[in-house]
Amino acid sequence: MAGKVFFSVSMSLDGFIAPASPEELMGRQWRELQAWVFPQRFFRQNLRFGDGGEEGRDNDILRETFDRTGASVMGKRMFDAGEHAWPEEAPFHTPVFVVTHEKRDPWERPGGTTFHFVTDGPEAALDRARQAAGDRDVRIAGGAATILQYVNAGLVDEFSVAVSPVLFGAGIRLFDGVDAARVALEPIRSEPSPRVTHLTYAVRPR
């Protein structure tokens, strides 16, 4: 049985998931947005940062998201930012399919992550990710433009947003350009934690 297609992101209270400038993608605003992730035990283990870290619902959600993911899809912008920021053992530990116009051989990293570069469009990348994932889920890792392509194409089954108590004022909005006439949302759950509020929705055709 094929798994679901989903995305899971952190979002500022005013609706942004990243700064506008690629040079600021790992800067102060992004660090504030992701501040709930960094102390978690699972995050520290996954990136080989050592023992210790917090346990609780935030930690469980990170682990559950990782465990359900059999393959990921991302856009070239996200890959370009991460290529220089991820450790040698990239944190995915599954196949990752990069939607791009650039032809490139697969890039295998220690720990089970292999990046595959797909030049024949988002649906082809998703098809390959589904095959690689088997009965596990496919995560649309980002960025916002790539997520939106899949949402507007009716290819996303559900998503989770961790709403962080920070304001950006400007940047890249998660749903800027969404085809709202075609997309309906069904609330699945809302889980507040001391750091963020986790919102999960099923995506339905309107």
Helix and strand layout, with pairings?
Layout lengths: L4 E8 L3 E3 L9 H6 L7 H6 L10 H12 E7 H8 L11 E5 L7 E2 L5 E5 L3 H12 L3 E6 L1 H9 L5 E7 L7 E2 L9 E10 L4 E9 L1
Parallel strand pairs: 1-7, 1-8, 3-4, 3-7, 4-6
Antiparallel strand pairs: 2-9, 5-6, 8-11, 10-11
Structure overview:
The chain is of the alpha/beta class and about 210 residues long. The chain contains 6 helices and 11 strands. Strands 5-6-4-3-7-1-8-11-10 form a 9-stranded mixed sheet. Strand 3 (about 70-75), helix 4 (about 75-85) and strand 4 (about 95-100) form a beta-alpha-beta unit. The longest helix has 12 residues, at about 55-70. The mean pLDDT is about 95. This is Deaminase.
